[in-house]
Amino acid sequence: MTRIRCYWGWVAAAIAFRLLLICFPENLNLGSRPEVATPLTSLRRLAEGYWLKQSSMSPYAGSMYHGSPLLLSILGPLTITRSEGQPAHFSCSLMFVIVDFVTAMLIHATGQKLMTKCHQSLQFLNLSKLVEASGNVDAGKFASLVFLWNPLTIVTCVGSTTTPIDNFMVVLAIFGACSRLAPLAAFGWVIATHLSLYPVILIVPLILLLCHGLDAPPSKLFQQKNSDASGSSPSSHSHAKSTQTGIQAHYFSWRPALHFLLWASIWSCYVLFLSSISLKGLGGLLEMFKKTHGFILTVQDLSPNIGVLWYFFAEVFDFFRNFFLIVFNMNILFMLLPLAMRLKHRPCFLAFVYLAISSMLKSYPSVGDAALYLGLLGLFANELAGMQFSFFLFCGYIGVSLLSPVMHNLWIWRGTGNANFYFATGIAYACLQTVLVVESVSTMLKYDRMLRKHITT
Amino acid sequence: MATEEKEKPKGGAARSRLIVRLGAFLVSHNLFVSVVCCIAGFIALLLLPVLAKNTYISENALMPGSANPAFSAQDVMEANRFVKDIIDQRTIEGTGIEIPRLVGQHMAGVGAEVYYHKFLPHKNQFHPLHFFSCTPNTVTVQNNSSCASFGVNSVGIIRAPRGDGKEAIVLVTPYNPWKIELSEALSLGLAFSIFSLLSQVSWLAKDVVWLAADSQFGEYTSVSAWLKDYHSPVFFSESRKMNVDVCHESNSHQDRNHITVKGENANAFRRAGTMAAALVLKVLEKKERQERDSLTIYAEASNGQMPNLDLINIVHYLAVHRQGLRVKIATIGSLLNSVWLRSVGEIVQRLCRVAKSLDPRWKYDITSADYVEGSATLASSMYHQAIGVPTGSHGAFRDYQVDAVTLELSPGFSLKNENSQSAFFLRGGRLIEGVIRSVNNLLEKFHQSFFLYFLTAPNKFVSVGVYMIAFALLIAPLPIVAVAPFSGKNEIRLSTDKGNQTPGYTCTDEIEISIGSWKWLHAAKVVFMTHLWAVIVLLLPYFMSQIPYISPTTSMLVWVAVATSALLILYLILGSPYSNDCEWVLLKSVMIAAAFIGLGLMSIINFSTAQIGALIVVPMCLIVRPLKRHKEVALCMRVMLMTCNLVLAVIGFPPTALLILKGLSEGFGRVGIGDFWVWAEFLWIWNSATYLYLLLVHLPCWALYVHILLHP
């Protein structure tokens, strides 16, 4: 196994680098970049909402704030505390650094669990030589380092947006499901859904994780192995062992799912209760839903971002708007079922694919979403080692992330470009993400095929 | 079994996706493709003057020359009187305030709103990274010095009788109040006569602002300071304003801040609306005599930005077709006489004739002389855009998205002659009046015509759609060569070393292949390290410019020494690029990818820089090969490759390239080591993105090139 040298040193360096950067928010001014801050996650909008709330107005008055009232209560007081000699939003940024660190640790822990499971199943399939030969990396450490040192994560963390919290909740849900803690998974899922709506689709991989267990080779292989073992080798010892593990692999119970749903309903009631307390007298829950989830679904803010919807809805005729809103929102849902069927034996990977797809098709995407799914991608470093076009994707991500601010500058500040210039980078980014999803899924399936080939020969 | 398995997935992939198959075809013939594309790129670049089209006015609202000019002999007399006043002032020894005050009084005399704008000159500072932000010159004013010297712009505003005060047209005349020349006085006189005419006309729909800019610290400084204050309202709490005020109080005995006109407070900053266009007016007396008055147009702003082509078009149209002036734009004189270019011109002329005989619809009719002149103009246009430094004070306007040009009028005869001076005023005045009238007709911002173009003559241009072809052809081989090591065959070749040890064992073999697809990560680390080093080198001058009293030569030596030691330290920390796991083929491909991204980005920020840079970087990327690996090829080929590599290594290094160029143009005796420092300083003071390109794209590319050459 390829060891990662001085892991904790790298983690500490990542934290130190963030701390260094948050001392110069004015120089970087990342909070005003459309790639980093969206109307949903901008901390400046949150501060505005908090100010409105403090002066006994609905925080959703006007069209400034579109986040959760809970964030307002937690982060709001931090936006106005300002001690001498410190840059604005320093305490918020400090909190985001801590959140990033915790997220990385959760990814690390998830990776450890996935690794253990992977080793177990490969050992059971008598393919442990595969593990040694491939010289695989410690997925948890690798993924958490990828997450921490990804420039997109750093930019998101330093750029004073609330995206680190959204990402933390998503990772928390996945971690909870991996360690079979239904209450924790439900909590992460409910809060993540409450904050940014799109993680609602993660319910499929979460239930699969809870009911079916962690990522493993397809169950067909275990059956095959079992039948082979019972047929060819009469050794009772290995037989007993294999049936035991085999049963474990097939075991699918609905109990944890019900457990999860129960907890999810408890948590959502609790969140709604807290929100209603927080918004008491300032416009009820209905307004909250209209201004947060409704705002996400109806794509009201058409200011440019790195997605593709703003351009489309700026061009589309008004009387077709509703139709296309339905089409675009259904687009994500269409892909859920086929993917779930094909990848049901790898729920964690399924969660990664869902996150990548939703970050591609969501109404207000930012680089923070890419930071999350690229971090999770690191968890499957061993399985995806044979991925095609890795170099192309790497260069593409670098190219697009440099091109986007240049095009924006050309359009907004110099006036020699136009909206099409910026939209072109949006399309290129969407294409890159498509290639990434397609390639990673096909590589994963190829990996499973390879395992089968090794078992049959 | 093993081979069968290897071929099966590959064949499957090739059958399933046509685009992958096409890509693989291109990649497998990458040598041929790159040679063809590069040659085609060079040829397309040489053909640009042939492909230039005639300009046309695409905004219908402009209607240039549709009205008869109202500028008459009476206005000329007024101008003459004003010039005489200024010349009289010149003889009086004064505090430098007399002429601004005189201009202000005359402005007020024709009924305009007048105020005086005071500004402090700014120090040369290192801020190349600011080219990206919206406000180009965020200058921090130094506190202790320069209180004694500040400039005074006199500004007059005519409110439009038919407008709502939301839009304005700006007229700028730079002059030096301490040492005013006759030509500067003439430009002031011309501007004043137009201004007084405009104060009487009824058709004005946009406010007219006349800025008599104090150019004692440079033309650009005064205009940019005024524009900065115009666009960013300053409140009294801000330190900058306070600073100027403090200065005033300390200088109060000089009565410089007691400029009042008719009792009004003339120090309050006033604004008109957003600027539709700006004209910078200059008069230049040329040594040589010509039969006609001539007009030179300067348009290049910072970082290769150009004003909308329509603005140049109306100026050209009115100057040539109404006033009979000779319109010129800058050319590179040495190219006009170059034998080389003339012979290319002959060939092009012959080719055009052949093309015309094939199909008479092809209107590529160009004579050799036209071609040479077109190329010299194109080269100058490209050079000025590539340097990224504005060619005049019009550059300051472009930073606020205002289209502006400098019009440099030069009389054909001596200005001492009263008659010829009056005729000159009449022509110049009618031209400016016509241009202002056209811009006044404009309903929206200039947007119809091109922003991205090169001029090959005052009435010929190459648009972005055409000149991009040359660049695209030139850099097209880069991605193809970059992915060549990752295409099917090579990938297996890279990973067979270990796979061969256990033949027949498919498992390891396959995994080797799969690991092979991530092998470029080591090369990427080296490339990343080199770029990190480049960032350090980029930022070094910031610290060095803090040291006072240091000569350019010393600075340059220190710069090189620190940069080299930084590279060595990075080697020590992160490991040498020659470690075992980094193959030069992969290093080359990652280097090419980085260069491709860099060139692509630069082509959007400043096309000309990217085009000129690509002429050096692309051959460098394509031809590079370790010197020790040349043994495999034939002798003559080996010698050729070797010389090519060495020549590229020398001219690819920015300082040596600059020294050679300078030596060729000015003689090698006058070339010093410090020249590059001076030049780099010039670039970063002007926020030129070219500086960033040189150090973030070109320099790492060159460093990697040398790495690969020396690869064991």
Structural overview:
The complex is a heterodimer of chains A (457) and B (712). Chain A is built from 22 helices and no strands. Chain A has 457 residues and is mainly alpha-helical. Mean pLDDT of chain A is 86; it is low at 233-247. With 712 residues, chain B is α/β, with parallel strands linked by helices. Chain B has 4 domains: 1-55 and 463-518, no CATH class; 62-115 and 155-214 and 254-330 and 392-458, Zn peptidases (Aminopeptidase), CATH 3.40.630.10; 337-390, no CATH class; 519-712, no CATH class. Helices cover 56% and strands 10% of the residues of chain B. Chain B is built from 26 helices and 11 strands. Chain B is globular, with a radius of gyration of 30 Å. The two termini of chain B are 37 Å apart. The relative contact order of chain B is 0.12. Residues 1-14, 134-146, 237-263 and 489-514 of chain B have low confidence and may be disordered. The chains are: A mainly alpha (457), B alpha/beta (712). At the A-B interface, α6, α21 and α22 of A face α18 and α21 of B.
Short description:
The complex is a heterodimer of chains A (457) and B (712). Chain A contains 22 helices and no strands. By secondary structure, chain A is mostly helical.
Q: Please give the number of β-strands of chain B.
A: 11
Major pleated sheet of chain A: none
Q: Given the structure, what is the number of helices of chain A? A: 22
Name of the CATH architecture of the largest domain in chain B: 3-Layer(aba) Sandwich
Q: What percent of residues of chain B are in strands? A: 5-15%
